[in-house]
Amino acid sequence: xxREEGLTLRSLEMVWKSWKLLWxxxxxxxxxxxxxxxxxxxxxxxxxxxxxxxxxxxIGMFMSMITGSVPPKMQVxxxxxxxxxxxxxxxLLASILLSTLLDMAxxxxxxxALKEKEMTLKDLIFKIxxxxxxxxxxxxxxxxxxxGYLNFSLLLIYAVIFGGGFTMGSIxxxxxxxxxxxxxxxxxxxxxxxxxxxSVMEDYFGLSALGRASDLIQGERGLGxxxxxxxxxxxxxxxxxxxxxxxxxxxKKAIYMVLLFVxxxxxxxxxxxxxxxxxMFYNKCRDNPEKELAMKDRLVYNRVSSSIPIPEDLx
Length: 315
Fold this sequence. Notes:
The chain has 315 residues and is mostly helical. 87% of the residues lie in helices and 0% in strands.
């Protein structure tokens, strides 16, 4: 019990220090968020308009095929489906690229703030331009791994619920599995983003960055998990509060738009604070000399042991 309480206090302390660091760097971070807000808005608006148009056309064609009022045009329908898939893939890749660039900008800014230095916007852009490929590759790996994990989790929960005959026992078991998967997701999210931080700060990318992150956080996994859990619980409470207030005031009233803007701003602040926490956690693990020495010794041992010839006459 004392260990868990100490871990909670340490995680709260790290969250508080991260908040103070974020507040100290608020001008640079606000400028970064404003710069990235425009391309994100353009991408979201263009994608939404194009997708809604395609979906409306496809629904109209399906209805005409069902009613028989218009001869079916399968070639046109297949072409629209192809356009829809291409638009989805293009939007996904553009979103991953923009989100990675935003993460890099925040990570570099916070890393310099930890050294009590400031990076000019010109230097920041130049730094990102030189190093963006590795973090983007790592972000793609994280996306595909997370997508596979999410699909597996959903299939597991559905299999338990519907395979058990939709009884109270199957629902209780599915609820327990959901809680365990949620906690595992909190931990994996921390590890995955540490891989992105490693990819930004060091010469690693892809699976090597994720492996480096897993080695780096050894001995501090509980601290990283607890800090990430606190931030996700905070985000959950904020969004639940938003839905409750939205239901109470009515979703069609003008004040709802104000509330929506406030909640989106709070969620953006929480997301930025999480990145700051990840950077501080990376520095805490990186600045542990005993851990770094052990990792280097293990690396040297692996290289030496793999290079030692094995006599052929051994039994």
